[in-house]
Design a protein that fits this description.
four-stranded antiparallel sheet; 57% strand; mainly beta; 121 residues; single chain
């Protein structure tokens, strides 16, 4: 399994970025996907997720500003980030997983290496 994220960088507050994640080594269309993020000194947060059927979910901190999408034909996951704030500064990780009947939640065992997003004030 490989998850290669790209698109991070430095942007001013109020700006936009689009992250991409190219997946390989597994049946992309059959997995739920997501974007975790981790800011320095903070715990990891699931910022956005999308099921294999296209149902999306967002953390309260990004709802209304970020949009997650997937292109199964290209094995690619996206995260469109608008109205960026300095508190969005973090390393963003692309993840893949499935629903766990044991834990009654989605579990994401596959992680990419992350891409850094820095938002300046």
């Amino acid at each position: 399994v490989q998850l290669q994220a790209s698109g991070g960088g430095l942007v001013q507050a109020g700006g936009s970025l689009r992250l991409s994640c190219l997946a390989s080594g597994f049946t992309f269309y059959s997995y739920a996907m997501g974007w975790y993020r981790q800011a320095p000194g903070d715990e990891r947060e699931l910022a956005a997720s999308i099921t294999r059927g296209g149902t999306t979910n967002y953390s309260d901190s990004v709802k209304g500003r970020f949009t997650i999408s997937r292109d199964d034909a290209k094995n690619t996951l996206y995260l469109q980030m608008n109205s960026l704030k300095p508190e969005d500064t973090a390393v963003y990780y692309c993840v893949a997983g499935r629903y766990s009947r044991e834990y009654l939640s989605y579990e994401y065992p596959y992680w990419g290496r992350g891409t850094l997003v820095t938002v300046s004030s």
